[in-house]
Write a structure and sequence with these properties.
Strand content: 15-25%
Largest sheet: 9 strands, mixed
Radius of gyration: 26 Å
Strand order of the largest sheet: 3-2-1-4-5-7-6-8-9
Bound molecules: S-adenosylmethionine
Helix content: 25-40%
CATH architecture of the largest domain: 3-Layer(aba) Sandwich
Distance between the termini: 67 Å
CATH topology of the largest domain: Rossmann fold
Length: about 475
């Protein structure tokens, strides 16, 4: 059996012996060997006399085995120094066996550090040429000792996996590379913005591997996160990023070379896996420049949670009831109400409760937060405009002006833009999930007020007309400017 086969056998037996509650607490989702080969295949192997490797949260040692095997094959004469850090005592016999297997490759020194990686990394003076990791996934409790320790070191992250990434980047030697498989959540959104900024200031992303199938990579471990592999080099900024895409970890990947600035921007990391994705990002970066805040408007999530407000929701209109607007009222870019939906379409409550849950009469843009699988679009928006106050379901986001309605042409223009194919194509690259969160909308860029007023004149019943108008208006104003 090869080194990798033996490591895979150990991974499987370690996984089988695990207590599921412990497994979740320590984020113990081990990398299957085919995925390990993809991850270990991503960095360049440095040509040096000594190559220093680190595996934070090493588990049974699958990733170290895959990387050391590759380094030995490509640099037969180099000395390899390996450090594997693993906090869980019960995994150490398996890890120790993998490390001694790796030593048998010849000219390899290994060290097993049986400690918490966070505290070890914060005091370690060691620096590494290659770091490979599949870090644990666990939320960091606000105010916990662990979070405080990280904050004192300038690391402000909501999940331990990002702390592992940040510390890994700090432990790299100049030109050292880190490759990691993680969820995609750090690539956009406000929770990770501080981390992202430090990360892309310290390292240059040079390779990304995405999997089209969300759930299959860790299929035998129960993880359903959307996983992504990123390799990055300390102190470098390449002109291009190699973006690999495969269906899951078992089939061949296609590769594209994408301009660095189309992947790494000040606000997000985009992963344009296809030509179409790259074009969607490039178009948006070039044409849309205004956040909702720049436009003086705000996006919020609907206030009425149906299961908490059952007694206020009614199927039939009753005296003094207000419209209850939910996702089923947005169709083809329009809102209509009532439509005879299964869910209650009317809201009635005592004035003191109603004043907290209703929004005043006026024009709003309502956007579905969830798209059904069979829906063609991820983003669907409509304009709600009425002389009555209204209740918005919590499964909608709505755009307003300081809690009140928008100027009608601005609402119409925003809905046209949100319903355009350009926006939908962009959103698919920008967001790793199918939900349309208010935080996503806050971060995205929109046309100017002037452009929105022009878009408001469009007939919104046809996708072709919407798309042509967005094209014309956004290009024309740019030429004029
Ligand atoms: C997602 S698993 C990956 C294991 C292995 N690298 C692999 O790819 O198969 C994360 C590993 O990190 C370990 N771990 C969790 N928290 C840790 C910590 N604070 N310090 C060191 N290791 C930790 C877990 O016990 C687990 O073995």
């Amino acid at each position: 059996m090869s080194l990798i086969d033996r490591a895979e056998a150990r991974r499987k037996s370690a996984l089988a012996a695990m207590d599921p509650s412990e497994q979740a607490a320590l984020g113990q989702y081990f990398t299957p060997y085919q995925a390990a080969l993809i991850i270990a295949g991503l960095p360049r192997i440095p040509q040096a006399e000594t190559i220093r490797l680190l595996d934070p949260g090493a588990g049974s040692g699958m990733l170290t085995a895959a990387l050391a095997d590759r380094v030995r094959a490509e640099c037969p004469d180099a000395t390899i120094d390996v450090i594997a850090v693993e906090v869980d005592k019960s995994l150490r016999p398996d890890l120790a066996e993998t490390l001694s297997d790796i030593e048998a490759l010849g000219n390899v020194k290994t060290r097993l550090v049986g400690e918490d990686f966070l505290t070890w990394a914060l005091r370690s003076e060691d620096r590494f040429d290659l770091i490979i990791q599949n870090p644990p996934y666990a939320k960091l409790q606000t105010g916990s000792a662990r979070q405080n320790l990280l904050r004192m070191a300038g690391i402000d992250v909501p999940n331990i996996y990002a702390a592992f990434l940040a510390l890994g980047a700090r432990l790299l030697a100049h030109n050292g590379q880190q490759v990691a498989i993680t969820p995609r959540s750090w690539m956009n959104g406000t929770y990770y913005s501080r981390f992202r900024r430090e990360f892309v200031d310290t390292v240059g992303i040079d390779g990304i591997h995405t999997f089209e199938s969300r759930s299959k990579v860790f299929g035998d471990t129960g993880v359903l996160q959307e996983a992504i592999v990123v390799s990055a080099t300390r102190g470098q900024r390449p002109d291009k990023v190699q973006v690999f895409t495969s269906h899951d970890h078992r089939d061949d990947a296609s590769v594209r070379s994408v301009a660095y600035n189309d992947v790494v921007t000040a606000d997000f990391i985009h992963v344009p896996a296809t030509e179409k994705d790259a074009e969607a990002v490039a178009w948006m970066t070039q044409h849309a420049h205004h956040t909702l805040a720049d436009l003086g408007v705000t996006v919020s999530t609907g206030r009425v949670v149906d299961f908490r407000s059952r007694d206020m929701l009614h199927q039939e209109r009753t005296e003094g009831a207000w419209p209850m607007v939910s996702a089923s009222h947005i169709r083809n870019g329009q809102t209509s109400h009532p439509v005879g939906a299964k869910k209650p379409e009317w809201f009635h409550a005592a004035p003191e409760v109603a004043s907290k849950l209703l929004v005043p009469a006026g024009a709003y843009v309502v956007i579905k937060r969830f798209s059904a699988k069979e829906e063609r679009r991820r983003v669907s928006a409509g304009v709600w405009n009425s002389d009555d106050a209204v209740a918005f379901d919590n499964k909608l986001n709505y755009i307003h002006h300081n809690g009140a309605g928008l100027e009608l042409p601005i609402a119409r223009g925003l809905a046209v833009f949100l319903n355009s194919s350009r926006l939908d194509n962009y959103f698919r690259v920008f967001s790793g999930h199918t939900q349309v969160n208010a935080t996503d909308l806050r971060q995205m860029r929109f046309p100017s007020l002037e452009q929105l007023r022009l878009l408001a004149l469009v007939d919104t019943t046809s996708q072709d007309t919407i798309d042509a108008a967005v094209e014309n208006v956004m290009n024309a104003v740019e030429i004029a400017a």
